[in-house]
Structure formats: C-alpha cells, structure tokens
Amino acid sequence: MSALEDRDVQLYLESLRNALRGLPTDEQDDILQEIGAHIRDRAESSDFSLPAVLRALGKPEEIANQYREGAILDHARASISPVRLLHALWIFARRGLWGVFALLFAVFGYLASTGLIITALVKLAFPAHVGLWLGANHFLLGFTSSPPPYATEKLGAWYTPVAGVTGFLLLSLTILGSRSLLGHMHQWRNGTFRSEGPVPVSSIGNQQ
C-alpha cells in the first residue's frame, strides 16, 4: 500500500472514530482495528483497489450506526431494564415484522404486569373498588370507580396476593422473553453483518 493510500485509510478511520463518539474508547479502538484490518487485507489483494474497498465498506456513519446498534443490543441482552430492552426492540421493529411482534410482546407484557402490580397495591387502600367482578354479562378486572351492580367480586382480599404474584411472574416472563428474542435477533444480526458486512467481496468486485 502506497503512502497516499495509507493516508486515505487513516482519513477514513478518523471519520469513523468521530462517528463512533459516545461508545467507550476501548470499543472504538477495537472497531477501528477490525475495520482497518479489513481495508488493508482487501486493498493489498491484487483483485481489489482501495477506492473499491472503501465504496463497498460504506460511509463511516453507516458503519458506526451498525456498531452502535450492536452495542445497544448487547447491553440490553444483559439487562433487566425495561428502557434498555424496549429501546433495543424498537431498533429491530423498524426492520421488519419479526421486530414489530417482539416489541408488541414486550409492551403488552410490561403494561399488563405493571397494571396487575399497581392494582394489587391499590386494593389495600380501596378494597371496594378493585377486584375481579363476574356476572351474566359482566367481566371486570382491576380498578373501577363504580363496581357493577349485577356482578360479584370473586377474589376479595385474595386479589392482592393473586394479582401481585401474577404481575411479578408476568413481568419476569416479559423480561426473559424479551432477552431471548434479542438473543435470536443478535444471531440474525451477526449473520447479516458477516454476509453483508464490512467488506462484501462480491460488491467490491462489481465496483472496480
């Protein structure tokens, strides 16, 4: 590789580092080392020119977004934070129906479990307005300002432990399910990144 080509590589990597701002410095260094090795390996091959390699690699901002999303996904998979999990699922929801279904699963799980836990606590303060009412044409679960007159509240004081335990179990299932879905998405992302990622050989050959 000539001095001029080496300068072009350094300029590209500097642009990539700027685009990676916000990630830990050690992660930036690893990414730059990986991308730099890809560029030099391809450029030093007699089949690929440096301009073709850089064109196939894409803009530094695009590569940075791939790695940034990967970092969000990796952190979410090791977290129980609803914010992190929903953020990671939102990223994949923008890519297709599989991600949309995963996001809807998590949103429903968090809303339902939170509702059960909150009403379990509210039952202690307003026992007549929280419960499970069943009647001929009535079904009501949770809080109501006016209990239905033609329905019977079935759980009574048991509502608090039943709703509380069910809510925590549903919350745990939502967290574990979301992390499992993100794990499958992680495998899909890695497969896509390897097959389409940093320097796709077929696209380089077409751009020379």
Overall description:
The chain is mainly alpha-helical and 208 residues long. It has one domain. The chain has eight helices and three strands; from the N terminus they run H-H-H-H-H-H-E-E-E-H-H. It has helices spanning 3-19, 25-43, 50-57, 60-77, 82-93, 97-125, 159-196, 201-207; strands spanning 130-135, 139-143, 151-153. It has a three-stranded antiparallel β-sheet.
List the helices and strands and how they pair.
Layout: H1 3-19, H2 25-43, H3 50-57, H4 60-77, H5 82-93, H6 97-125, E1 130-135, E2 139-143, E3 151-153, H7 159-196, H8 201-207
Antiparallel strand pairs: 1-2, 1-3
Which structural traits does this protein have?
3 strands; 208 residues; mainly alpha; rod-shaped; 71% helix
Order of helices and strands: HHHHHHEEEHH
**Would you identify the regions where 5 or more consecutive residues have pLDDT less than 50?**
193-208
Strand content: 5-15%
Number of strands: 3
Question: Quaternary arrangement of the chains shown?
Answer: single chain
Q: How many individual helices?
A: 8
Q: How would the global form be characterised?
A: rod-shaped
Strand order of the largest sheet: 2-1-3
Report the average pLDDT across residues: 84
Helical proportion, percent range = over 70%
Helix- and strand-based class? mainly alpha
Number of spatially distinct domains: 1
Round the Cα radius of gyration to an integer and report it: 26 Å
First-residue to last-residue Cα separation: 17 Å
Major beta sheet, specifics? 3 strands, antiparallel
